[in-house]
Design a protein that fits this description.
This is UPF0149 protein KH389_25880. It comes from Pseudomonas qingdaonensis. InterPro entries: YgfB-like, YgfB-like_sf. With 184 residues, this protein is an all-alpha fold. The protein contains seven helices and no strands. Helix 2 packs parallel to helix 5 (95-116).
Length: 184
């Protein structure tokens, strides 16, 4: 019996029931992309970027879920044990559904990164990672339900767990808060 109430499914239901035509994967990608470009973890900035995908202003429970998601990502990227858990359908979902979510995650990541990366100079390695994400965002139709498709999916997923770390460690150096302007 499949687990129906995964975090992904619960978040998808929350978004759909509030009229947001976006997948949790794309939102999570957006959040990681902007974080990796050095956008920081200011809730207002994240909610403003998310608003583009949400299309309508989020109600409180959606706002709270988005802020919770950001706290989780902040903990993953800045904690002792740096690890990224991708917000994707569970392994018992059909491969095509999981592959589409991977593509949406990549699109979201590239969008979030693009919104916040003006003026960043990227290493060849960072450019290659972004190129890979762009390529992955196009392949969702290429994975078929098969042993090979399953292992390709797992490989891509592993790569996507590592890629943000590389970009975050290169680009999102923690910045000291800007000094408050004096009023004299």
């Amino acid at each position: 019996m499949p687990i129906t109430n995964s975090p992904y499914t619960a978040f998808a239901t929350l978004l759909t029931s509030n009229g947001h035509p976006v997948s949790p994967a794309e939102l999570h990608g957006l959040l990681l992309g902007r974080s990796c470009a050095g956008a920081g973890f200011d809730a207002d900035g994240w909610l403003a970027d998310a608003a583009h995908l949400l299309e309508v202003d989020p109600v409180d429970n959606v706002r709270n879920a988005l802020i919770g998601l950001q706290e989780m990502v902040k903990g993953e990227l800045t904690g002792e044990e740096v690890t990224v858990v991708l917000l994707l359908p569970t392994d018992d979902a059909p491969l095509t559904e999981r592959a589409i979510a991977l593509g949406e995650w990549c699109k979201g990541f590239l969008y979030g990164f693009g919104l916040n990366s003006a003026g960043l100079s990227l290493s060849a390695e960072a450019k290659e990672v972004l190129g890979d994400l762009d390529a992955i965002s196009q392949v969702q139709d290429a994975l078929e339900e098969s042993e090979d498709g399953e292992s390709d999916y797992m490989e891509v997923m592993e790569y996507l767990r590592v890629a943000p770390m590389l970009l975050f460690s290169e680009l999102a150096k923690p910045q000291a808060p800007a000094p408050k302007p004096s009023l004299h």
